[in-house]
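To close the section, here is one more complete example, presented without commentary so you can practise reading it yourself. The ligand is flavin-adenine dinucleotide.
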Amino acid sequence: MAETNGAPTQPDVDVVVVGAGFAGLYMLHKLRGLGFTATVLETADDVGGTWYWNRYPGARCDIPTTDYTFGFDPDLESAWTWSEKYAAQPEILRYLQFVAERYDLRRDIRFSTKVTEATWDETARLWRIGTDPGPGLTARYYVMATGCLSVPKDLDIPGADRFRGDVYFTSRWPHEGVDFTGKRVGVVGTGSSGIQSIPLIAEQAAELTVFQRTPNFSIPAHNGPPPQQSLEEIATDREGYRDRAKWSRIGVPREPATETAAQLTPEERKARFDAAVAEGTLGGILALWADMGTNPEANDMVRDLMHDRIRSIVRDPETAESLCPKDHYFGTKRPCLDTGYYETFNKPHVTLVDLRKQPITTVTETGIETAEASYEFDAIVYATGFDAMTGAIVGVDITGVGGQTLKDKWADGPHTYLGLQSTGFPNLFLITGPESPSVLSNMAVSIEQHVEWVADCLRDMREAGFTTIEPTQTAEDGWGLHNGDCAAITLHPTANSWYMGANVPGKPRVFLAYIGGVDAYRAVCDEVREKGYLGFRLN
Ligand code: FAD
Ligand code: N01
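Output:
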């Protein structure tokens, strides 16, 4: 670190980026292209982020890979071919490694390095970043590309540390894989990770017991080759195709439904539902009719169709009823795409334990006890989710102007302007942070939009001679109100979802993402920039 009379005048680098997933990799590439010096800090020992950590059997994307991919470089796109409609974790990891190699990114990434603290030095106008292992470094700008689903939720099950058999977390799966052949396995959790892994664990295990607290909605992924129509559209008009995704509601090129449920006959609704199930995409099933996310009756119609489908597959009526989600509206928890999930419960060696009827009382040395029974296992798999959206951000001890910590400021929920910055924390940028479309969208598209906005902002500042940027309080408060209003007109706040922070005991209950749409959000961000960074204070 350069120092004059003991006080640093110049930072070690222009920008520190934390995280080497999709977001951190593209941020580094973009910054370099603009002539900024940058260092990426990453806990893992290689690139990949989500796709480095989540190596459980069946892990794959739920946005078609032709869309869940970088679009910023046409040459990169022609250099890579996805093998499946929904590529599996090893292939997505290979892709991100390929990206790192293609742009020679690893030389500016410090692996096996956890960022523990970051403090804004008001005099020197730079961030002092503390790392484990040290030494830390200083930077003018600090970008958190730390991921929305990167911090596993702490286990909140009594006795969990007593179990003497093998314990696995889907979010921290061993690199060498796990062989469950002949084993008695218990899986706790039936979100996307559980629903993807359960059918494959069932193929190996001698006995599989699934502990379900909340059933989830799932439709078949119908995985296979990448969709021919997308491939053709990309081949003939790549830019137009990517543009349609950027200006769509969830970041995939698709026209939204315009008719409300009441405008359709029951036969038309059923035909749309069947077509969406046959298509096997979230974009399709979440857009059956225009009011399914806002009108309880319209949503009930999807729920009923989903329940009928589950009952038609699962042979044991009691198990089928337990698998039918009734405590939340369709779409208010992220729906899942599966391969043979419901069919798995027809196998004689697979048992569903409905924790609504018999809650877990404790984990024991040899298994799991519920209010009604005791289950013995060789291995327990926890697919229990993440401290989503804010976990990785407040996991770093971040101190801003006047000694205020971000953790304190966000004690009642995140406060940001555009999900990009928080008042009192100059030059700190969040990639796909809370109050941006983020996890409600195809994140490849949302990550690119944020990275490009931040890069443009830093270049604009350099050209205009500014060195600090932070939102005004008015802008931040206004954005917070707008976020809350957008969520309030939907059914989302009614669910105990991780979108609401409800999965982590003690976490404030607020809707964590911006639900106004990828298209509307992009328009706001573009306008803010065009109007000279309206709502930001530059110095
Ligand atoms: P991440 O990939 O999470 O990377 C963040 C990195 O930051 C991690 O490597 C982490 O180790 C590092 N990090 C965090 N804190 C620190 C720290 N303090 N110090 C140092 N390093 C730190 N989204 C979709 O749009 N479509 C999908 O199909 C899809 N599938 C998913 C499947 C799974 C199993 C999961 C868990 C998520 C999925 N997501 C999907 C969301 C996914 O997280 C994003 O699409 C995307 O990969 C996020 O990239 P990122 O770079 O922002 O964050
Ligand atoms: O986590 P989750 P996830 N006792 O929070 C249960 C993305 N993703 O890793 O709902 C008993 O959804 C919990 O029960 P409940 C995607 O965005 C995508 O599966 O809290 N059970 C729930 O069933 C996804 O939404 C893919 O009642 C407990 C489960 O554990 C997000 O990541 C694949 C419990 C956790 O489900 C998170 O998914 C994987 C307890 N104490 C992930 N605590 C794709 O398909 C928790 N549970 C692309």
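Once you have examined the tokens, check your reading against these statements. The first strand starts at residue 3 and ends at 4. The chain is about 30% helix and 15% strand.
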